[in-house]
Structures are given as C-alpha cells and as structure tokens.
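Continuing the series of single-chain predictions for the mutant panel. This is the parent chain; the variants come on the following pages.
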Amino acid sequence: MAFSELGLPKELLIAIEKEGYERPYPIQMETIPAIINGKDLLGIAKTGSGKTASFVLPIISTIRKRKTLKNRHINVLVIVPTRELAIQIETVFKLFSRSLPEKLKTLAVYGGVSINPQMIALQNVNILIATPGRLIELVESKAVHLDQVETLVLDEADKLLNLGFKKEMDFIIRCLPVKRQNLLFSATLNEGVENISQLILNDPCVIKIGVEENDIDAIVQKAYTVEDSKKGPLLRYLIKESEWKQVLIFTSSIYKADNVADKLRKNGIEATAIHSKKSQLARNTALEKFKSGDLKILVATDLLSRGIDILELPVVINYELPRSPKDYVHRIGRTGRADKSGEAISLISPDEEHHFKIIQKKMKKQVDIFSSIDLV
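Parent structure:
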C-alpha cells in the first residue's frame, strides 16, 4: 500500500516523499483512514512503529477543513507524559504542516521552564502538545481554553498513568467538550489504559500492532562480565574499537550519568549527559545535537529515554542495569526500531549477574555473555 491510497492531500504526499518515506508502516495504514473518517481510536503499538506520524498526518489533513476558532481556543490537544516527547511531536507536526498553503500554528508546552513565554506564544494556536501539569497551569491562568477542542490525543497513555497523572487527567477531561474525536495510543494495554479508554472513547476503532516487550528480535544482544571499577575502561575500549556513528548509554542515576560523561570527555571522547537535573535548554540542545549526528555519545537516565527517538540508532549500552526487566526492554528498544537492526550491549558487574539472569528469564531470551578480562 502507498501513502497515496490513504486519503491524504496532495501537499502532504509531496512532503512525505520529500522526507524519504517510501511506504506507510502497518499502524499508519490502519490509523490514517480511520482518523480522517472521524473515528475514535485505540492504538496499541510499540515505540518506533511509526505511531507519531500515524496521527500527525491525518490531523493535519483534517484540520484544514475546520472552522477558525477564537484566540486561545485550540482545535487539537495532544497530551504526553514528558517534555521531551512533547518537543518531538511538535517537531513532526511542524515538519509536515510546512507544506500546506494554510498557516497552521503548533506549540508544545511543558514544565521546567518559565510559563510566561508559553502564555504569550499561545496566541492563535491550532495544535497544542502539552504535559498535564503545565497545561492545567495555563488553563487556570486563562491562557488557553479547552472547551472547543475537536480532537484529543493521549500519547503513551500507559506512561501517563504510570507516572501518576490521574488527577490531572480527570481535571483536563472535565474541561473538554463532550463531543470530540478521541485518539489514545499506548505501548501496552494494561488495566489503567483499559479504564481510561472506556471513559473517553466512543465506539473506537481498535488497532494492535505488536507489543514492545516482545519485539526485540531485530536487536543483537550481548553482555560483558566486568568488575565495577573496570566498566569505564571497557566502555572506552568498545567505543574506540567500534565504528558506531552514535551511541546511547544508560545509567541508573543522575550522578553516574554525569560521571560517565565526564570520564569519556577526559579521555578524548565527546559525550554529554542528559537527565532531570539539567536545564531544559541543555536537554533540548543535547537531544538536537544527538539526533542530528553532531553529538556521537549521549549518556541518559531512564526518565529521559522517551524523548530519544532515532530510527537508525546503531547501539545502546547498559552501563548499569535498570531495576526492572520492562525498563531493560524499553532501553534496548531505542535501537532496532521500525524494521531496522540494532545492537544492545550490557556491562555486568558481579553484583548484577543474578539480576541479569532474571531479566533474561522475563524477556524469554538468552543473551551471549563474554568475559572482558582480555579487553581491559
């Protein structure tokens, strides 16, 4: 199937071709026509499946036909759990809406930065992407009104619920008009997602495109046993001996992320740490440099991983193991995305060996383990 068969306008088809998209991914084939036809939708799809474009493209296509609303009243509201994801989705909306003859204004709002510039920027916005807390602040300040929203998107609904946004979500939904289109996307279908889907969705089209936890076959996994004190030298050896264009390294704490990045820089390897203690400007800059290829190595904590979405990221390295097997699968899922191959490497200290056995058992996959003695 081609994009031209999905009911998208000519201007968007030109933009899609310009960006190098050859054919739609499975989720795009199913969601785009349903959204264009005004259906409510529940999409269960793994991260990296092409999900963002699956709602961005039909929303851009249909918003052109809608009436112009009063200032500070928005047509489309997208709610996300993290600021990084908000910025990522804003980028995709702006990328494709540039091709339209009509002017379409998209804005992402989130906490951790001054609210005043966001209040000013909310003039004549059509599409708003927001984290729940900052959105409520803006509503209470009357900087934005939600009573004429025509399409609501909840992206990564499982994470929204896991991060404890239930009270905020209840408040936001009460501010919305009863009659609207609702689009809910989640990587998993747990009890919380089922409950919220029953609350907001009306006769939805249900689309399931795989599950993130089970879709790791495209990722080559291996691990090295290493003393904790020698993880740094082993990491530097692997980076210097390999020809990776980009490397995403995960640590389990802010302190360790900073420490690993500092040690790499001291040894002549450019690297930047990204975590919740960094300023929003620093985080945005680091992500943009990494996505563009200007920064080779990014060291991140789990909290920030949702905004890191690169189709051809070649390798992920677990400098430390995460607490849960689900977090491990989510980490390595940053590579091997959307039918691309990838590599995941874990550095396993003696204290982590038992936990790594549990991770392998939970994901039902045996990982090749090598000794690092001859390497460092």
